[in-house]
Amino acid sequence: MKNFFRFGKKKPKEYRPFLGHNVDPEKLEKIRSEGLIDANYDDKPTKKRKKTLSERLRERKRQKERNIERKRRKRFERKLLKKQRKEFRRSSRIEFIRKFYPNYKKSREQIFEQQLEEGTTGDSKSVFRNYYYYTLNSTALFIISYLLVYLIYQLTVLIAASRWKLDSVLFYYDLAFNDYSPLWSKYN
């Protein structure tokens, strides 16, 4: 415990009590004779060295940088705390609703990649069957969306042609015009 407060291998400073600026010489001699202070004791307090201008500027710059860093850290901590509070409120709200409705916001089916990770080796056929379902689903949706866009385009062409009183028939695969009509011109 004796060396606990020692930092490094420096010797502790000698205790030199400050006796004041106007010390009575007799009192000073009496204290020296008792051995409380050594013979070359100076009764004047030691003065601190004044910092130069460049040192003060460096110190001020370091202080500003520390303040800026401290503000950034506090801002980040506030944002993080706000995010955590929001997430906690959301999760507690969902848990409260689940007391009355247990399946609230729970996924009904597991995604097939999660099923693979869980190690469902016996059901690997059902997992790979999901791939086919997803493939067929996306292909069908792609074809339906293509047909919708194509029909919308052909419908606008049909409306523009009817403005010029051109006869046309809309099929799902084509827009047919009466090409032999006398209404056809270079402009329309």
Question: Which terms summarize this structure?
Answer:
188 residues; 4 helices; mainly alpha; elongated
Write up this protein.
With about 190 residues, the chain is mostly helical. Helices cover about 55% and strands about 5% of the residues. The chain contains 4 helices and 2 strands. A two-stranded antiparallel ribbon has the order 1-2.
Describe the secondary-structure layout.
Elements: H1 25-34, H2 53-100, H3 112-117, H4 124-163, E1 168-170, E2 175-177
Antiparallel strand pairs: 1-2
Helix content: 55-70%
Shape: elongated
- Mean pLDDT equals 78
Helix count, DSSP H or I runs of 4 or more residues: 4
**Residue share in β-strands:** under 5%
Elements, N to C (H/E): HHHHEE
Provide the low-confidence segments as ranges. none
Question: Could you tell me the number of beta strands?
Answer: 2
Please tell me how large the radius of gyration is: 45 Å
Helix and strand content put the structural class at mainly alpha
Within the largest sheet, what's the order of strands? 1-2
Q: What does the largest sheet look like? A: 2 strands, antiparallel
How far apart are the first and last residues' alpha carbons, in Å?
104 Å
